[in-house]
Design brief:
TIM Barrel
Length: about 325
């Protein structure tokens, strides 16, 4: 199981030097990947291109980039530009976006999300290979090609939680990205669903990239309270409510990993046992607490990398 960490706004407000510093700290800790989540400030692709060009020792990825407002031709050009800037160290993680935000903020349709994403990927994947596309479909029209010399098509991961989206991810993407999804739900629902879909489509075993809130602390109750305060709203979002219910969790605080270094390591091994191939940690707390978690993660990463995984460990 490869070990990564979130950088940028998901950890709190940050300027560019701080984001670069977070990426550099991850590389110096020996972590495999730094992941950036698209929010409402920094553009994830631009930021990764800037930060990654200054820290060449680590892979980078988006986890995730909502795509309803980005036409496949536009996203293909952006993703290949980042791939070229990073020397082919980039993984493109995308998602349909939170429904009420896509509707309320962009005024875009949110019905039939799996069907929309299936068509989007059908257009995007050949564009990333610099192939000519002539597509006039139910949701998207795309005519043309994208060429960025020297850039390889990046791996594409799809945020998928429900059965229909997991089928799309297995058939058309290289894996999935989850967020605040517990090990039981991963083992019993996510991993079997996407793996079966990939096998039926004759595709390789998919990457399972799981995002986890983590705090190395002597005060677990305070850490869980901090999670509930900052991320509690997610527990009322239908997309996340479904997986929290599967896990038997009342809210995000119940799936956060908290405790001392040994306890955090023990809990994180459960993700490898569930079939996760790539774990990315989002540290909880202020800057001092986050540094403590990064340092502890470097200590336990050797254990986590050799922890069992039921779906194997495809190369980065």
């Amino acid at each position: 199981m490869r070990i990564g960490i979130t950088v940028g706004e998901v950890r709190g407000p940050a300027d560019l030097p701080e984001i670069v510093g977070q990426v550099r700290a991850a590389a110096e800790a020996g972590l495999d990947t730094a992941w950036f989540t698209q929010a409402l400030g920094w553009d994830a692709l631009t930021t990764l291109g800037l930060a990654g060009s200054r820290v060449p020792e680590i892979a980078l990825g988006t986890a995730v980039l909502p795509v309803p407002a980005r036409h496949p031709l536009v996203l293909a050009g952006q993703a290949l530009s980042v791939q070229a800037a990073l020397g082919d160290r980039f993984t493109l993680g995308i998602g349909a976006g939170i429904g009420f935000m896509v509707d309320a903020m962009f005024g875009l349709a949110t019905d039939r999300p799996a069907r929309r994403m299936r068509e989007y990927l059908t257009v995007l994947r050949p564009l990333l290979r610099s192939e000519e596309v002539t597509h006039r479909g139910e949701f998207w029209t795309a005519v043309g090609a994208v060429s960025v010399p020297g850039a390889q098509a990046p791996p594409v991961l799809l945020a998928a939680l429900g059965p229909a989206m997991l089928r799309v991810a297995g058939e058309l993407a290289d894996g999935t990205v989850t967020w605040m999804t517990g090990p039981r739900t991963l083992a019993e629902h996510v991993v079997p669903g996407i793996t079966a879909a990939a096998a039926a489509a004759g595709r390789p075993r998919p990457r399972i990239v799981a995002g986890v809130l983590v705090a190395v602390t002597r005060d677990p109750a305070a850490a869980r309270a901090a999670v509930a305060d900052r991320f509690g709203l997610a527990g009322r979002v239908p997309e996340y409510r479904a997986v929290l219910d599967r896990e038997g969790a009342a809210g995000p605080a119940d799936v956060a990993v908290v405790g001392d270094t040994a306890e955090v390591a023990r809990q994180l091994v459960r993700y490898a046992e569930a079939g996760v191939t790539d774990l990315f940690v989002s540290p909880i707390g202020d800057a001092v607490q986050q540094r403590r978690t990064v340092a502890a993660l470097a200590e336990v990463s050797a254990v986590l990398r050799v922890a069992p995984s039921s779906v194997g460990s495809p190369g980065r």
